[in-house]
């Protein structure tokens, strides 16, 4: 059984969705927890 091959555009869109979700999570934590500093490296 071989690994499926995904088109480059599919991979780019998948990474962008993860990045947006991560940014949203950080923004939510920043709003909910007063005084927290989130370091995104």
Write the layout of secondary structure elements.
Blueprint: H1 8-32
Rg from alpha-carbon coordinates:
16 Å
Level of helix content? 55-70%
Please mark out the parts with pLDDT under 50 across 5 or more consecutive residues, or reply none. Answer: none
For the record, give the distance between the C-alpha atoms at the N and C termini, rounded to a whole number: 37 Å
- Topology pattern, helix = H, strand = E: H
Shape: elongated
Structural class: mainly alpha
Helix count equals: 1
Q: What's the average pLDDT?
A: 82
Query: Largest sheet, if any?
Result: none
Give the number of DSSP strands. 0
Give the percentage of residues in beta strands: under 5%
Fold and architecture overview:
By secondary structure, the protein is mostly helical. It has one helix and no strands. It is elongated and about 50 Å long. The mean pLDDT is about 80.
Keywords for this entry:
1 helix, mainly alpha, 0% strand, single chain, 41 residues
What is this structure, in a nutshell?
The chain has 41 residues and is mainly alpha-helical.
């Amino acid at each position: 059984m071989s690994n499926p091959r995904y088109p480059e555009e599919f991979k780019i869109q998948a990474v962008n969705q993860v990045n947006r979700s991560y940014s949203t999570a950080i923004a939510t934590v920043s709003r909910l927890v007063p005084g927290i500093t989130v370091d995104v490296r």
